[in-house]
Amino acid sequence: MSFELMETTVAQVHAAMKAGELTCRQLVEMYLARIEAYDQKGPAINSVITVNPKALEEADACDAYLKEHGEFNGPLHGIPVMLKDNCNTTDMPTTAGSVALKGWVPPTDAFVTKRIRESGATILAKTNLHEFAIWGESVSSILGQAVNPYDPTRTPGGSSGGTGATIASNIGIIGIGTDTINSIRSPSSANSLVGIRPTIGLVSRAGIVPYSLTQDTAGPICRTVEDAVRCLDVIAGYDPDDDETAWCVGKVPATYMNALKVDGMRGKRIGVLESLFGKEEVNKSTNEVVYNALKVFEENGATLVPVKDNIDQPYLTTETSVHLDDFKEHLDSYLNTLPPEWPIHSMAEILDAGLFHENSEGNMRDAMKLGVGTPRYLEKMYNKIGVKTHIMKIMADLELDAMVYPHQQQLVCKIGGSQQQRNGVLCSSCGLPSIAVPAGFAPSEDAPIGVPVGMEIIGRPWSEELLIEIAYSFEQHSHFRKPPVSAPAL
What we know:
By secondary structure, this protein is α/β, with parallel strands linked by helices. The chain has helices spanning 10-18, 24-38, 55-69, 111-118, 161-168, 185-190, 225-235, 284-299, 313-319, 323-335, 347-353, 358-368, 375-397, 425-430, 464-478; strands spanning 48-51, 80-84, 122-127, 139-140, 144-145, 174-179, 194-197, 217-222, 269-273, 303-307, 402-406, 434-444, 447-458. The chain has a domain at 10-266 and 410-478: Amidase signature (AS) enzymes, CATH 3.90.1300.
């Protein structure tokens, strides 16, 4: 068989299937072999919570459909998906990384799960995450610490680190993450991947274990912009079970694929948000990578515009983000839907029973002291409006199409540490769209090819098509993505 699995894409898989060189079963078998070789062995990325026990059966059904009908059963026919384990699945447990939900099988699929299934894709596995998605190191009480395949001493970012580590290691093709503060873009940055945080309201959160419904969204984590866009096409759209998606009506194109333009950078004005570049020695290697990546814009017809305004990352985290304020009430709203016989129905009960990883306890106990509707909460919500308007005015005054900066001002943290100076809060607190793209690698003693560094491309609400144009063109002219050497072809 001439099909090459490593770094393959949806388009390449479908071409091989049409040519009779590959079946869905063969594809799934290859990825199952890689889970066996690399999740608990080899680099031991510890990123798969549950393998779909019916994955091969579903693959056979796809093959039978193609044989009978002579066409694919959907736009993601037979494509293996790695689904973050806070998305409800009726045929596998949904743990949100917590032992408190061990064995819980929801009665209905999440909206994104349903859309993935309807597209013809196969959910290959549910992936590790930071417990209840509450922070950025991807350590859970259900599975433990996920590991960065580029540097075994580092985390894979988070909270969607299990998705990031598997997709980077060529386990699966499409990944699904969720993002409340940084959590799609952080593992994308840390694993040389593309991650899309859509405008709030573009993708439904129904059936996803909530962290902060003020800021939560779901989105793709993939090896290429094109595959991320194929996924976005499938999961975007109105859902009556998520009121916020009413805002997307009339704003979702028939397909985002038309935005994949090789010359999409040409003529664009790109703001460089200088205040989100670190100024200390620890930031030096990241800055060097991103400043080198910025040359790609100028070399391909874009204009870089310095943005001098002080958009302060610590201020955004403490004064605009309501993630912890929302957490108890919004998580409890999910836990309260569990059957009466289930032993846990609130975060307070989780804490009282000790059903948590020690890494999560501090944030959970802090959240217990907070709540929605307080004067402090309303102050943060008011501050969000001011920051969002400030960003829009910057873009209007400077006639910008997008702005860029490093997702993280310093390299993704070591295992046992905590993430520092992540910039994702700007978009998450303001509900703005963002695409993280690989910008290169920074040298580190435990990373054979370096530690991945990601760059964010952000824009106005509902500007996904424009951001995709820029991100795709940047990718096609840079090709910074490299797979980790720790998970080679089998």
